[in-house]
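Exercise 7. Given the encoded structure of a 140-residue chain, write a plausible sequence.
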């Protein structure tokens, strides 16, 4: 699993799991909040963006106080070792090179890399990736 450590000693406390859930729910709410703020007039938009930035600072402090970090894999090459669950992995063949297109829920790790909460992502085929038929025709 690479640099990520599974919770083999059950050292992830209920408290850390609860804080991780709060971080994930905040992330989900923030996406919705920003999509609404984006539709406001500029003057109102600035006010709500300022409030949002203050809120994000407080959430980052909370995570830091508990030695947690949110990890996003957007744009990264997908592999079986990433601590994420893909919602659409069954849409692709085994030979296709995939990337994480969008994070639905971030992965939450401790400072030393222990997984507190596995993230959820949507995958897509990596850019400039040719399927087998196109590659076969190109090589002829």
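Solution.
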């Amino acid at each position: 699993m690479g640099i990520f450590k599974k919770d083999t000693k059950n050292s992830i406390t209920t408290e850390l799991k609860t804080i991780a859930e709060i971080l994930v729910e905040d992330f989900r709410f923030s996406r919705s909040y920003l999509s609404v703020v984006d539709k406001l007039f500029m003057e109102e938009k600035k006010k709500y963006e300022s409030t949002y930035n203050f809120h994000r600072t407080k959430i980052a402090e909370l995570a830091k106080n508990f030695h947690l970090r949110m990890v996003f894999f957007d744009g990264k090459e997908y592999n079986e070792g990433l601590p994420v669950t893909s919602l659409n992995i069954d849409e692709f063949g085994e030979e296709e090179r995939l990337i994480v297109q969008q994070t639905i829920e971030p992965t939450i790790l401790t400072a030393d890399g222990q997984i507190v909460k596995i993230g959820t992502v949507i995958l897509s085929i990596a850019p400039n990736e040719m399927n087998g038929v196109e590659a076969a025709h190109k090589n002829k």
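Remark. The longest strand covers residues 98-105. Students should compare their own answers with the one above.
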